[in-house]
Amino acid sequence: MSITHYQHNTSTKSKGIILDIPVEVYTDICKYIPPIDLVTLSLVCKKFRRWLIAPSNFGTEQIWRTSRTNFLSSIRTPPPGISEQCYTILHLIELGCQFCGAGKVDPRGELPTESPVKIYWTFRVRSCHNCLMERVITKTKIQEDESVLDFALSGLPFLVRINRPYIYWKKDVEDALREFESMDKKDIFNWQAENLLKLRQKNLITSYCNNVARNEPWEKYHKKVKLRTVIQQLSMIVPNDAKRKFQEVEVELRRCPTYKKYAICPKAASAMKLVNEHHWNKFQEIIHHEYNERREYAILRARQYDLFLKVYSLIPSKYSMNDSIVQYL
User: Do 316 and 323 meet the contact criterion of CB atoms below 8 Å apart?
Assistant: First the structure.
């Protein structure tokens, strides 16, 4: 038997063992896995995906609830009407846009520099602006087709924008119009009433989720407090050749470009919520390196200034261009 054939058989057997795990054991294992890894696991095979993304399975709900509680404690319990897995997956902003992948953050990689992705709870999508615009349609555009009646869209969720037309999800509009056209006139009233009731329930969920999102600035505040703590800790351990005061060292640290970017730049500040412990360690390393560079430059400038003062002291108060020191300079 060839080595290649043996390796193939071994890998096939290993894969079979994994797939033959009882669902109860699999459920217990998954409870200790972070949500972002549960998403990766759901892409391994159809069986895992069925177990992890089942729409109405108590075991699935329990897996995601436990994982959210253990690893994403800042996220509240989802409101009635939205599943644990949907609610948690939408909150995983570091996964980036669910359509194009823009804004994806490597949890063990470089510092995130911006957060171009946003959760649109009205449509229950996590999307960048470009992908959103490709998948929505304005009410003005819909009304250009005179055959479309307003009450055909009355049960559809829409996004309100200041001084701009409402926008609807294109697929929702297409499905609603298709259903409306195939319906008997006597059923239209009940169909509209049922859709309005569903819309009211969806709006309640959207309102709840948006209110939770508005409370996120409080979480960002804690991130900034942690950022200041990092600066203070660094200011106590960095070399202080010039024997400067504690506050002066901290001021020097605040001049480091990475700190300025993450403390002042709005785009980078919005990425603060994507920072994990690995990124915090990376941040400290970068700040320490930048401070050392600035310190070495400051030492060089201090020596140059000291040399200038010594040379300047050699120049007599009354000098002429014929003096040797003046000619030397």
Answer: yes
Structure token digits, residue 261: 């970017």
Helix/strand/coil for 148:
coil
Q: What is the pLDDT of residue 214?
A: 56
Write the DSSP symbol of residue 119: E
Instruction: Give the CA-trace dihedral at 102, 103, 106, 107, to 10 degrees.
Output: -140
Supply 214's token pair. 């508005």
* pLDDT at res. 123: 92
Which regions of the chain are under pLDDT 70? 1-20, 23, 55-58, 74, 107, 113-115, 146-147, 212-251, 263-277, 297-299, 301-302, 311-312, 314-329
Q: Which two tokens stand for residue 236?
A: 């106590």
Q: Residue 18 belongs to what domain range?
A: 1-91
SS3 label, residue 322: coil
pLDDT for 30: 79
The pLDDT, as a whole number, for residue 131 is 92
Please tell me whether residues 140 and 179 are part of one structural domain.
yes
Phi, psi of 169 (to 5 degrees): -75, 125
Are residues 314 and 325 in contact, defined by beta-carbon separation less than 8 angstroms? yes
Contact present, 170 and 153 (Cβ < 8 Å): no
Tell whether 206 and 104 lie within a shared domain.
yes
First to last CA, the chain: 85
Q: Which two tokens stand for residue 310?
A: 């010594």
User: What phi, psi does 85 have (nearest 5°)?
Assistant: -65, -40
Beta-bridge mates of residue 169: 136
Judge whether 329 lies within some domain: no
Burial group, residue 77, by CB count within 10 angstroms (0-12, 13-18, 19+) = exposed
**Kindly report the CA angle at 151 between 147 and 156, in degrees rounded to 5?**
110
User: What pTM does this model have?
Assistant: 0.63
User: Is 328 part of a structural domain of the chain?
Assistant: no
